[in-house]
Amino acid sequence: MSLAVVATRALRGLQAVPVRVEVHVGSGLPAFNLVGLPGTGVRESRDRVRSAIVSSGYAFPAGRVTVNLAPADLPKSSGRFDLPIALGVLLASGQIAATGARGGSAAVDVSSLVFAGELSLTGAVVAIDAALAIALGVAQDAASLQLVLPRHSAATAAAVPGLTVFSAGTLQDVVAHLSGEVTMPVAQAHVATALAPAQVCLSEVKGQAMARRVLEVAAAGAHSLLMSGPPGAGKSMLAQRLPTLLPDLCTAQALEVVALASLGGQPASVCLTPPFRAPHHSSSVAALVGGGVVPRPGEISLAHHGVLFLDELPEFDRRVLESLREPLETGSVSIARAAQSVVFPAGFQLVAAMNPCPCGWLGHSRKPCQCTPERIDRYRARLSGPLLDRIDLQVMLGAIDKGWSDLPAGEPSAVVRARVMMCRERQMARQGCTNAALLPSQLPGAVQATTEALGLLDHIAHQQCWSGRVVHRVLRVARTLADLAACADVGRDHIAEAAQYRSGW
After folding, report:
1. Could you give the CA distance from residue 351 to residue 282 in angstroms, rounded to a whole number?
2. Which of 433-466 are b and which e, b meaning 16 or more Cβ less than 10 Å from the residue's Cβ?
3. How far, in Å, CA of 446 to CA of 450, rounded?
4. Residue 24: enclosing H or E segment and its boundaries?
5. Which of 237, 156, 249 is nearest to 203 (CA)?
6. What is the pLDDT along the chain (505 residues), one digit of tens a residue?
7. Closest listed residue to residue 256, CA positions, set 237, 275, 239, 242
């Protein structure tokens, strides 16, 4: 055989695009040509593949070797193409039997396998990034496909349901498997129920009964939340305890979270605990949204299915904050580059905290504020109206005047989480999504507000000059309050409480 075709995958965002590695070995002066829009990491594979083949005891063809990575208009990067290229060379040069038998054992059908792995000069198959993203793409394409990955990457990829992942240690192991001499071990998946026992609990937040109630509402309906208050009011403590109130992720969501983390160069194990991301206020637009020559996910995508906590919100750059507007509405972010455009999921729950003024003491009962009205206006103007419109809950936290020892402990996270779980179950049974994710067209059927409640909402909206977006968000919050109270209809009390949670700003 002078021509061989081996299947692999290239990544375009979180999508694993099928790639055919076509290898032709012909006569002529010795040459090794690689075409198909390869990046620097792929072009360097020529030297790695040659050394790995020779070190593994095989002969590198003396003729003209041409490798085409199809489709040719798709950019390819990283060293994960080493293994399929090396196998294509061995198949095209006749050193592996693609069909038939060798040593009395039937050879494996190469067309049913997808290969990905970097090769060292010794022939060892080195771990790769984004193994889980590749596995998710292979599992979606066809149930009959099987995946061959490096030993250190296969265990993570094996968590994908219904996918067989073979664990490869060396190039010789893969060749022996294809020749039918031995069978590579099948990787076993491990899914943790949690990263570790919870180290924080909502009972540690003393006082702040209204803030605890708002946090429960945010968890129950997956609503975004902005807390404003003086230093020491408990804003950061409350935000850090929100994940302890949230339901565990399902397996599909956990796999998506780990796949995004691997694309961002952050190794992680498959875990059912929602992610919690808290970037510093000096973060750039690319760090928060994603970017790079080869686009990588940012913090908003790494917080997918979890919580994104932005502390000291007005200290973030204005351009960074404005970049949150579209993802808050759509649940995804599109990053356009000259070579390609990729889309990353960004279904995060935003929780933000800020001081009421630059010095932080505005409204404090004992410490006077030193800021001028003009300075306070400039500070608050860093948050635009369109961004604030997209935040469901906006509350002001007061300072704790009593001594901490005099305050009783609140409910623990486990008790509040049980109520949140029941509320989420009502939402899923009624509309199949959380209340925060309701579309405008779904609101009339899901909210089921009484005539008196709608009349009160119209009055408050006219009085406060609310936009249509704010009215919809107040309705979603009121629906969550009704679900927490196990009420079928949204009443006046629910509308009044939901409106109160937008007056703190």
Report:
1. 17
2. ebbbebeeebbeebbebeeebeebbeebbeeeeb
3. 12
4. strand 15-26
5. 237
6. 589 999 999 999 889 999 999 999 998 889 999 999 999 989 999 999 999 999 999 999 999 999 999 999 898 988 999 999 999 999 999 998 754 333 333 357 898 999 999 999 999 999 998 899 999 999 998 778 999 999 989 988 998 999 999 999 999 999 999 988 899 999 988 665 544 445 789 988 888 889 999 999 999 999 999 999 999 888 999 999 999 999 999 989 999 999 999 888 776 678 888 999 999 999 999 999 998 877 889 999 999 999 999 999 999 999 999 999 999 999 999 988 776 788 999 999 999 999 999 999 988 878 889 999 999 999 999 999 999 999 999 999 988 766 666 677 789 999 999 999 999 999 999 999 999 999 999 999 999 999 999 999 999 999 999 999 999 999 999 999 999 999 999 999 999 999 999 875 5
7. 275
> Encoding tokens for residue 131?
């193994």
* C-alpha–C-alpha distance, residues 416 and 414, integer Å: 6
CB 303 within 8 A of CB 290: no
Burial class (CB in 10 A: 0-12, 13-18, 19+), 31: exposed
Give me 377's structure tokens.
Answer: 């206006």
The radius of gyration computed from the CA coordinates of the chain, to the nearest angstrom, equals 28
Please tell me the chain's helix, strand, coil percentages from 3-state DSSP, rounded to the nearest 5. Answer: 40, 20, 40
* pTM as predicted: 0.88
Cβ neighbours of 91 (radius 10 Å) = 22
Beta strand segments in 319-384, E:
332-336, 341-345, 349-354
User: Which amino acid does the sequence have at 239?
Assistant: A
Q: Are strands 393-396 and 225-228 parallel, antiparallel or unpaired?
A: parallel
